[in-house]
Design goal:
This protein is α/β, with parallel strands linked by helices. It contains four helices and five strands; from the N terminus they run βαβαβαββα. It has one domain: Response regulator (Rossmann fold). It has helices at about 10-25, 35-45, 60-70, 105-115; strands at about 5-10, 30, 50, 75-80, 95.
């Protein structure tokens, strides 16, 4: 069975694009549009991979990332942000800059993570 992927991104167009790309490869995908929804969905969905924007309404990405670090098992995280790498230092956290984002890059990240 393919991995479960949670997208936490407040830009609806970008969130929907990521959803379509990832779901087309057979992954189970859920979407959230703010950090508060993201924390709740992490509890319910128990994703293997979280694609996380750092600038979010209600609860910011750094707080969601801190919450993720307390989870067991700890999901892999792709920080998908234009705000830089600050705070992206944990072992299970990967960084993908929005400014140079390509659909192939996200797919490569997920493929690499699921092969580990």
């Amino acid at each position: 069975m393919k991995s479960k992927v949670l997208i936490v991104e407040d830009n609806k167009d970008l969130n929907n694009l990521l959803f379509l790309l990832i779901a087309a490869d057979g992954y189970q995908v859920r979407q959230c549009f703010d950090g508060e929804q993201g924390r709740d969905m992490i509890e319910k969905f128990q994703p293997d991979i979280v694609i996380l924007d750092m600038v979010l309404p209600k609860v910011d990405g750094r707080e969601v990332l801190s919450f993720l670090q307390t989870r067991s098992p700890r999901p892999q995280v792709i920080v998908f942000s234009s705000s830089g790498r600050e705070g992206v230092r944990a072992k299970n956290v990967h960084y993908c800059p929005k400014s140079t984002f390509s659909p192939e890059q996200i797919k490569e990240f997920i493929t690499t993570i699921t092969k580990q």
